[in-house]
Design a protein that fits this description.
CATH architecture of the largest domain: Alpha-Beta Barrel
CATH class of the largest domain: Alpha Beta
Distance between the termini: 22 Å
Strand order of the largest sheet: 3-6-9-10-11-12-13-14
CATH superfamily of the largest domain: Glycosidases
CATH topology of the largest domain: TIM Barrel
Largest sheet: 8 strands, parallel, barrel
Bound molecules: alpha-L-arabinofuranose
Mean pLDDT: 94
Number of domains: 2
Length: 519
């Protein structure tokens, strides 16, 4: 649990060093952190660092999938550069095929010889032709290449219980069965043993416009016939609420027994639906509002968790934030149905804050999936033909991998505010964990776009004498990478931290994301 509260006396008397930055302390804001490095009981699941890829715009086609005959280097049609880049983040899981697309998708259209697969219209996303060349085998090959767990979302809105049940049988039965035989006839001998299954997507909206009561009953039917095969225990995720719809969460918690579901999802985008605005052309007001909206998401997480705690005090059911991130206007001149947006330091700040919030609530949040991995919404990767760039958001995921499966540490923080037009937000957000080798990793986001903050970190419960780190920052909050200049925003070594007598002193730059490792 993280506390934002008063500085303890012991830390004040140490005073603030200026050696780390060479600047006068009076120019910077001040903050203090206490981290109990020997405490902590909860694990930050690496699945909090998960991803989402939908048949939408250029996420799959032109993103992950270029086809075997492409001049772009690929392995069985899957782009090598994207796979390599995501492996560097240790991508833990990938959700597919939607999103809204999932409740229109009939998986049997996406198996067998590609030239024989039926074509359909992707009605949600631009009305384009979907030729089904990327289907179950291709997706699971992608996951194997990435070393990521697949998370498949079934069709509840327009599909049937039988269809979803057969999909599970197709991918998970090792022995003889009609669907396993069909899989083998399509060239895959071994079962994939997919664990994570979503039972529909946004069933309050594009997934069927259902009421919570109706969906809860549907869930029970679908979940009954999606079976465990062999030792593979399915982890089923009920299609959860939109943003602040606490009644949806409550109804599902009330009507679905905990043993029938591993998790309940939540979709919450950090956006102003009335005026999304440009991804790169924005002023400080829009920047500040985005940070405020992150805090609204944080509050909503707690409110959903409170509802879940009422019905499940032992926290058996996970909260799965399987769509989150920024949603800006599409880039000028691109298909409005493709949701292609640029990605700036502001997006990196949103990613850093959100991941810190998820870490802090890892006792309940055991999976999250940013929307979406490539070329759609808050992407990690953008492509243009054979070119590929990494976004500031990518770098945050790569830096935060230090928290994967580590123990969340109690962290007490005192910091000042970043203020604009009479509104205040905390200037800093931080998260700390202890990895299996005993190293302590700390991620710090400074949202203030102007002031650096000098921080003293009191590392209690251990002996620490070395610190290394990296920082992600830009010249401005709208700094971003382009196909012409792909390295404008990238992590740099952080040399400004000192450690003495278990007190770490450092100065974090304006609008920056920093990761530190102490040992
Ligand atoms: O991520 C884009 C869309 O946003 C998804 O398809 C849907 O689930 C959500 O509304």
């Amino acid at each position: 649990m993280q506390y934002r509260k008063a500085i303890t006396a012991s830390i004040i008397v140490l005073g603030m060093t200026t050696a780390a930055t060479g600047q006068k302390a009076s120019e910077a804001a001040m903050a203090s952190l206490i981290i109990d490095t020997d405490l902590g009981t909860e694990t930050i699941s690496r699945h909090i660092y998960g991803h989402f890829s939908e048949h939408l715009g250029r996420c799959i086609y032109g993103g992950f999938w270029v086809g075997e005959n492409s001049a772009i280097p690929n392995t069985r049609g899957i782009r090598d550069d994207i796979v390599e880049a995501l492996k560097r983040t240790q991508i833990p899981n990938l959700r597919w095929p939607g999103g809204c697309f999932a409740d229109e998708y009939h998986w049997m259209d996406g198996i067998g010889p590609r030239e024989k697969r039926p074509k359909m219209i992707n009605t949600h996303w631009g009305g384009v032709t979907e030729d089904n060349s990327f289907g179950t085998h291709e997706f699971l090959d992608l996951c194997e290449q990435l070393g990521a767990e697949p998370y498949i979302c079934g069709n509840v809105g327009s599909g049937s219980v039988e269809e979803m049940s057969k999909w599970v049988e197709y991918v998970n039965v090792e022995g003889v069965s009609p669907m396993a035989d069909l899989r083998r006839s399509n060239g895959r001998e071994k079962a994939w043993n997919v664990k994570y299954w979503g039972v529909g997507n946004e069933n309050w909206g594009c997934g069927g416009n259902m009421t919570a009561d109706f969906y809860a009953d549907q869930y029970r039917r679908y979940a009954t016939y999606t079976r465990d095969y062999g030792d593979n225990r399915l982890l089923k995720v009920a299609g959860g609420a939109n943003s602040t719809d606490y009644n949806w969460t409550e109804t599902l918690m009330k009507k679905i027994p905990h043993w029938m579901m591993w998790g309940i999802s939540l979709h919450y985008y950090t956006t102003n639906w009335n005026k999304k605005g440009s991804a790169t052309q924005f002023g400080e007001k829009e920047y500040f509002e985005t940070v405020e909206r992150c805090l609204n998401v944080e509050k909503a997480l707690d409110r959903h968790i409170n509802v879940m705690d009422r019905y499940d005090p032992d926290r058996r059911v996970a909260l799965v934030v399987d769509e989150w991130g920024t949603w800006w206007d599409v880039e000028p001149g691109t298909n409005p149905g493709f949701l292609y947006q640029q990605n700036s330091m502001r997006d990196a700040i949103v990613a850093g804050l959100s991941l810190n919030y998820f870490n802090e609530r890892c006792g309940r949040i055991r999976m999250a999936n940013i929307a979406q991995t490539v070329n759609v919404l808050q992407s990690l990767i953008l492509t243009d033909g054979e070119k590929m760039i990494l976004t500031p958001t990518y770098h945050v995921f790569e830096m935060y991998k230090a928290h994967h499966d580590a123990t969340l540490l109690p962290l007490h923080m005192h910091c000042g505010n970043y203020s604009l037009d009479g509104h205040d937000v905390p200037a800093l957000s931080a998260s700390a964990s202890r990895d299996k080798n005993g190293k302590v990793n700390i991620t710090i986001v400074n949202v203030d776009p102007v002031r650096e903050t000098e921080i003293l970190v009191d590392l209690r419960g251990g002996e620490y004498d070395s610190v290394t780190g990296r920082v992600l920052r830009g010249d401005a909050v709208n700094a971003h990478n382009t196909f012409e200049k792909s390295d404008t925003v990238k992590p740099e070594p952080f040399r400004g931290a000192r450690i003495r007598n278990n007190i770490l002193s450092l100065s974090v730059a304006p609008a920056s994301v920093t990761v530190l490792t102490v040992e």
